């Protein structure tokens, strides 16, 4: 059978022509798609740079409609919704992403994290907790555990918070020993309020062992011993506090005076307070020293305020010294004293180092920003 080369010569141009026509059609479609999606995308980006979020959302919605398979557009749109407080729309975008079967593992984990953030911002803590727990074993695990920790702290679920902190400590995701001690102290306070003093003491002793350098557990344990009528144990714990965390001794200075007076060991307590005051002058240490000396020699005790004024200017110390002085025009003394006390009162507050929130009492967790150990043991005037 003879092979006819004319068919080859005839077929080659036809095949070439069909291929060229098909490529042109594909290129035209690709160009049309690329014109629609990127144009809307870059329009949205431009609106974002100009802080026009409403127009940016409209542009991204248009881009998503033109190219529904692009995950980055969905993430951008969902994040915009969350930033604007439209949490329901953000949730719908991220749930739509998670429902797609063609989503890669990395994008699925990213969408799960974004969904958890939506629930957190919306205040849906139960749903946020469930979404965060699904991030175990993903690159977002550390962030998810920190968010869970914040949820349990906000809801005061201290056993759950302690479990998360223990797991993070075991995974070398940070040192959470001090925070675990706080959780134990919180549980001890609850037990103490219910009259379960022995259980509270056990929890506080566990807190001391968990974070020996943290002052709160020892201060709470000393207060518990004082409540139980054991002044000697109170003094022992406070002496340990002075060695382990001397900067926190001003927070327990008044308790030290009370326990020392009850145990008949005021001389030892006085020596301890003076030693720490000389090293680091503090108003609470000063008041405790004056309280101890005032029992036998009130006038000599008040000289401590003058000595403090020689070391550093203090309106608080001046007001307290003046309270016991006899003025030449004594009839004006009450008015002057009230004015000084009014002016010095804000200086006796504590201030959070993280957010600046001021309070009359010392907090271990700031009521404003929820930070732990952000309140120094010194008054505003001393900072």
UniProtKB/TrEMBL annotation:
Residues 24-383 are cytoplasmic. It holds the Pfam family TPR_19. GO terms for biological process: lipopolysaccharide metabolic process; regulation of lipid biosynthetic process. Residues 350-374 form the LapB rubredoxin metal binding domain. It is found in: Cell inner membrane. HAMAP family: LPS_assembly_LapB (MF_00994). It is a single-pass membrane protein. GO terms for cellular component: cytoplasmic side of plasma membrane. The lineage of its organism: Bacteria, Pseudomonadati, Pseudomonadota, Betaproteobacteria, Burkholderiales. Belongs to the LapB family. NCBIfam families: PRK11788.1-3. Gene3D superfamilies: Tetratricopeptide repeat domain (1.25.40.10). InterPro entries: CellSynth/LPSAsmb/PSIAsmb, LapB, Rubredoxin_2, TPR-like_helical_dom_sf, TPR_rpt. The keyword Zinc does not apply. One of its GO terms (molecular function) is iron ion binding. Keywords: Cell inner membrane, Cell membrane, Iron, Membrane, Metal-binding, Repeat, TPR repeat, Transmembrane, Transmembrane helix. Its main location: membrane. Fe cation binds at residues 352, 355, 366, 369. The chain crosses the membrane at residues 6-27. TPR repeats lie at residues 37-70. Modulates cellular lipopolysaccharide (LPS) levels by regulating LpxC, which is involved in lipid A biosynthesis. May act by modulating the proteolytic activity of FtsH towards LpxC. May also coordinate assembly of proteins involved in LPS synthesis at the plasma membrane. This is Lipopolysaccharide assembly protein B.
């Amino acid at each position: 059978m003879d092979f006819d080369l004319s068919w080859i010569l005839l077929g080659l141009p036809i095949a070439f022509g069909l291929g060229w026509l098909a490529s042109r059609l594909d290129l035209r479609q690709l160009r049309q798609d690329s014109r629609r999606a990127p144009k809307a995308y870059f329009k949205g980006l431009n609106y974002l740079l100009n802080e026009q979020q409403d127009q940016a959302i409209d542009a991204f919605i248009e881009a998503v409609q033109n190219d529904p398979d692009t995950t980055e557009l969905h993430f951008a749109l969902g994040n915009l919704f969350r930033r604007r407080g439209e949490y329901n729309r953000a949730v719908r975008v991220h749930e739509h992403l998670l429902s797609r079967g063609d989503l890669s593992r990395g994008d699925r984990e990213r969408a799960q994290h974004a969904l958890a953030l939506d629930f957190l911002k919306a205040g849906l803590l139960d749903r946020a907790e469930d979404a965060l727990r699904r991030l175990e074993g993903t690159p977002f695990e550390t962030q998810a555990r920190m968010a869970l920790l914040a949820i349990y702290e906000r809801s005061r679920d201290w056993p759950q918070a302690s479990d998360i902190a223990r797991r993070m400590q075991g995974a070398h995701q940070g040192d959470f020993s001090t925070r675990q001690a706080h959780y134990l102290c919180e549980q001890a306070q609850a037990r103490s309020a219910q009259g379960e003093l022995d259980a509270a003491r056990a929890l506080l002793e566990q807190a001391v062992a968990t974070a020996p350098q943290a002052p709160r557990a020892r201060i709470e344990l000393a207060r518990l011993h004082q409540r139980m009528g054991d002044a000697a144990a109170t003094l022992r714990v406070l002496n340990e506090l002075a060695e382990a965390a001397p900067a926190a001794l001003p927070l327990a200075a008044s308790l030290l005076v009370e326990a020392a007076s009850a145990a008949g060991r005021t001389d030892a307590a006085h020596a301890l307070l003076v030693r720490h005051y000389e090293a680091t002058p503090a108003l609470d240490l000063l008041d405790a020293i004056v309280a101890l000396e005032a029992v036998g020699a009130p006038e000599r005790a008040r000289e401590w305020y003058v000595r403090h004024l020689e070391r550093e200017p203090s309106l608080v110390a001046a007001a307290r010294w003046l309270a016991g002085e006899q003025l030449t025009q004594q009839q004006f003394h009450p008015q002057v004293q009230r004015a000084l006390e009014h002016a010095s009162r804000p200086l006796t507050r504590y201030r959070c180092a993280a957010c600046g929130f001021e309070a009359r009492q010392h907090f271990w967790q700031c009521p404003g920003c929820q930070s732990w150990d952000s309140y120094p043991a010194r008054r505003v005037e001393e900072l």
